[in-house]
UniProtKB/TrEMBL annotation, chain A:
<feature type="domain" description="RNA polymerase sigma-70 region 2">
    <location>
        <begin position="29"/>
        <end position="95"/>
    </location>
</feature>
<keyword id="KW-0238">DNA-binding</keyword>
<dbReference type="InterPro" id="IPR013324">
    <property type="entry name" value="RNA_pol_sigma_r3/r4-like"/>
</dbReference>
<dbReference type="GO" id="GO:0006352">
    <property type="term" value="P:DNA-templated transcription initiation"/>
</dbReference>
<keyword id="KW-0804">Transcription</keyword>
<dbReference type="Pfam" id="PF08281">
    <property type="entry name" value="Sigma70_r4_2"/>
</dbReference>
<protein>
    <submittedName>
        <fullName>RNA polymerase sigma factor SigM</fullName>
    </submittedName>
</protein>
<dbReference type="GO" id="GO:0016987">
    <property type="term" value="F:sigma factor activity"/>
</dbReference>
<dbReference type="InterPro" id="IPR013325">
    <property type="entry name" value="RNA_pol_sigma_r2"/>
</dbReference>
Automatic annotation (TrEMBL), chain B:
<feature type="region of interest" description="Disordered">
    <location>
        <begin position="120"/>
        <end position="161"/>
    </location>
</feature>
<feature type="region of interest" description="Disordered">
    <location>
        <begin position="1"/>
        <end position="28"/>
    </location>
</feature>
<keyword id="KW-0812">Transmembrane</keyword>
<keyword id="KW-0472">Membrane</keyword>
<protein>
    <submittedName>
        <fullName>Uncharacterized protein</fullName>
    </submittedName>
</protein>
<keyword id="KW-1133">Transmembrane helix</keyword>
<feature type="compositionally biased region" description="Low complexity">
    <location>
        <begin position="128"/>
        <end position="142"/>
    </location>
</feature>
<feature type="compositionally biased region" description="Acidic residues">
    <location>
        <begin position="1"/>
        <end position="11"/>
    </location>
</feature>
<feature type="transmembrane region" description="Helical">
    <location>
        <begin position="84"/>
        <end position="105"/>
    </location>
</feature>
Amino acid sequence: MVVDSFADVDDATLLRRHTEGDPDAFGEIFRRHRDRMWALALRTTRDPELAADAVQDAFINAFRRAGSFRGDSQVTTWLHRITVNACLDRLRRVRPTADIADHEMADPRDRHRSVEVRLDVQTALAQLPEGQRLALTLVDMHGLTVAEAAQVLDVAEGTIKSRCSRGREAMLALLGPSDGDGAR
Amino acid sequence: MKPDDDGDEVDPTGVRQLLRSLPDPGPLPEHLALRIEAALRQEQARRSASAVPLRRGPEPLRGADTGVVDLASERARRRPLRTVSLVAGAAAGLLVAAVAVGNLLDSGVVGGADSAAYAPTTGDRQEGGAADSAGAGSVDEGSAGGQMLDPAGASEESSLAHASQAPIDLLPHLGAVTADDFDDRILAGLASDAAMAESGSGLTAAQANSCWETVGSQADWWSRSAAPAAEDGRDVVVLLALDADLSGHTWLVPGECVTDRSARPLADAAVTP
């Protein structure tokens, strides 16, 4: 696979060249996005082994389904969606009852939580409902816009805003005292 | 990709900054990158061999159609192999029968039960068996060595060794199998439409990889498959490796292989095209 010849080629063009039969184009897409998708998979599954399988699933699926990319979004948004789906698929194989529904967690301002519990950021993030955690991962950690995150998770933009807002509030409550000092 | 530019995304809590300050998980591990590149190369080879153009069309980004595996295209991708496998299996059966009958006629034994009459054929099979035994010996050596080596190091080395191998196709449960028919059963499973049933395999890729470790096969197979099954009431896993000419090998391994890489194969058999 030749790397240099693709230096000035954008992702969408690479994907198009791949669908037209260029045997090297997808390899360049993999090289460009593999670290980012790995980070996303790790943050989504919180399990290196599941993340490894999910990233492989995601790139194989993207390879096969490149023809379905219409160009309405950025290639990286499309890859985020495929990777998140691969992660959720892997997670549901080991936890069939897992649900992305934005169900409420226990009241984060519960006295015992607010006074007693001071969790580190990662642990606090892991405490959130999956929908809120995914929204925060995409928007706050991966820098996607609300619109892009909405595309990735296939929900309305308002849902992403709501999940982010509630997720941040819950994080704040988990991380700090209940008197609203803000995040540490 | 600039949330700060998104006017609606104001964060008075400071949590966003906190999340952004978390350390990056780091790059994709090299052995995993190699594994995925090998899988992509295999996809490319299959694509080139089949000359089937990638699906095009106005499929929306939204919706479930961007799920992990497109079963329809998967079926289309696999059917040629299944068909060829079935034909090859039938041809192999005919060939064995023809050779056996020929040997009977050549040796003048007709209808007798003298096993010497089968010597040439069984000799061939014994050669295969010897090779198999050598393979089993390799497993033994690997197991013995594994006891002396740092397990983590051995695992890493093993992962690297597998990096260039074909990804494992996970097949549905084969039902009850025996040591005599597990090879036929997995070939039939591979050829069956049910192989792509949405119910899935019951094995994860990691579990299948673990089971492959137990057979110690480092050959660069064209295709690898794994299927859960039951033998005499216990869980087993049947592994199948094929080369491009549809020759290959199958193994029957105990179900513990999904977590115990030192599990020993219960039986194995060569697959002839």
